[in-house]
Amino acid sequence: MTQTVHEFDQYTDVRAALADPALVPPPPAEDGPAGASVAWLRASVARFSSGEAHRRRRSLVEAELARLDPAALRNPAPDDGDLRVRVVRTLAEALGLPEPAAVAAAVPVVAGAYFGHQDPAADAAVAELVALLGPDPKDEAAMEAAAGRIGLLVQACDATAALVEAAAGGDAPPARVLRDEPPVRTTRRVATAATRIGGRPIAEGDAVLLRLAADRDNPVPLVFGAPPRVCPGRAHALALADGLLGRALTPFARLHHQATPLLLPNAWDHASAAALAAQGFPAVGTTSLGVAAAAGLPDGAAATAAATLELARVLGRGPLLFTVDAEGGFSDEPAEVAELARRLHEAGAAGINLEDGRADGTLAPARLHAAKITAVKAAVPELFVNARTDTHWLGLRQEETAARLAVYEQAGADGVFVPGLSDPEGIAELTASLLVPLNILYSPAGPGLAELAELGVRRVSLGSLLYRTALAAAVDTATAVRDGRPVGLAAPSYAQVQEFQAPGASG
Ligand code: HEM
Question: What keywords tag this UniProt record (predicted)?
Fold first, then answer.
């Protein structure tokens, strides 16, 4: 009897199918000698397991990847002519595995047979890898951990090499190439029980083919799959690709690819930026509300282009790493936004924030915002573009947020920002499908830094919170003196504030 195959290519259906516990990866067909066959490997790794075994094996992989220093992945192993070998060797070295050169030679042989071809050479390569990793064959847990390590290298090998090959011809960032030429276009599942996807009934034993690539109807590609089995190596794949392509990160971009998220406090003038830098913050942002309010102007109404540029010029006099909140770019002409970005960069800015929210409470069309991002990246590729969507603030559905972020990412954004989003599930859903770092606005009522880090957030900004706090402190101090209350605040001294002058300032 032939098996019924159901195909899905719409984002909502594919995502629902990937999350459905009744749909599992096709289990390995045969058994093979433990520690010496691809069949044993497939029967022992997260990729082909389900239920409790999947959870246990996936945590092993995640723990292994958590040990990795992302910076190490950007330093590729020497080029011996074979890209797949180089990918695996870089990863094996970063993981501190024994004899990385021998490991790297064996893994591509296993990768060729991982999805089901019989190959005695691949069985021999598994045996060699197990011998190199050296688990005690009688210790089941150690054998499972060794299989997990091999599985991780095998998963990384072909897909990452394909990405590097596709990106090598041009200068598009790997995150964008992934969308255009996804290395993994489909994935399969079988139904262990009757279920329903997108209203279509699926009988027990039926097969399901899921298309992960984006198309015109599906703006949110799932090139790395989706929870609970989303690729745990997606950040690693992009770091490996950057390294192998010789794409260096700017110092500011690097702060978004560390083990802990970048906490970015927002300043409104030189003294507030310098005071924050003096406390060891590696970078600061500006707050458009603070800049506008200080100048007696409205925020978000494209009224502060001159004040914003002026602040960038002052901040740019020193060594401070800073990024500028430039509302929607103060124009709906992408060429004008690109010109502003060029001037900000010339002034010393390392990044720019561009938002799609408008003063009248509507959103700029996603295509227009994407055109601004592309124009800025074309004019100043080194400037880190953080593309902000105000969907959440406007109460739009999470799907609209995900769709807009995918479009902005595709347009070349280096990071994306969803102010107002604070529910852990919504954040986790976005970080699972995003390729670029997600920025969240800290909310005193929302998750703390540690939880945001756990959820995969890479940058946490404070927005206008510090400016508003400073206003509150000023007013509270004045009213305390007037009303005879004690003055609570330990303010910096006159001399300390004098030290926050911009270099080269003349009196
Ligand atoms: C561009 C490169 C890569 C692409 C496109 C990619 C894509 C994917 C996809 C689509 C899945 C899910 C498959 C499914 O659910 O059916 C997956 C799973 C997996 N990937 Fe990646 N991957 C890449 C690189 C890597 C790297 C570098 C690593 C390790 C460092 C890795 C480790 C894994 C593992 C262990 C799984 C299985 C997870 C599980 O079943 O829970 N991948 N990958």
Answer: Lyase
